[in-house]
Amino acid sequence: MPESKGRPKPAFTPPRRTRSTEPQSNAPWFVPVMLGLMVVGLVWVVTFYISGINQYPVPQIGRWNLGVGFGLMLAGFLMTTRWR
Q: Which UniProt keywords are present, listed alphabetically (predicted)?
């Protein structure tokens, strides 16, 4: 039985990218908000300790003031991972 001739295959060409490869910059408000969260969190925790614990910033939540302060700082630090 005769064998058929193989067809030459065209060389692979990757598809063109539609998006640009340049990293996009952040919005102008991003860095001030990021730094503001870290500073406000730090001031919150320092105020809690200096005020004699449970007087300021919010006396009703007691030691949860530490959680609020560290939460604000953590949000600011998490924003640094998206900073370009």
A: Cell cycle, Cell division, Cell membrane, Membrane, Transmembrane, Transmembrane helix
- Cβ burial of 71 (10 Å; 0-12, 13-18, 19+) is middle
Rg (CA), the chain: 28
- Tens digit of pLDDT per residue, the chain (84 long)? 777 777 788 888 888 877 776 778 899 999 999 999 999 999 999 999 999 877 888 889 988 999 999 999 999 999 999 988
Number of domains comprising the chain: 1
Dig out the tokens for 14 from the structure: 């990757």
On whether the pTM is more than 0.90, the answer is: no
Specify if 33 maps to a domain: no
Residue 8 maps to a domain: no
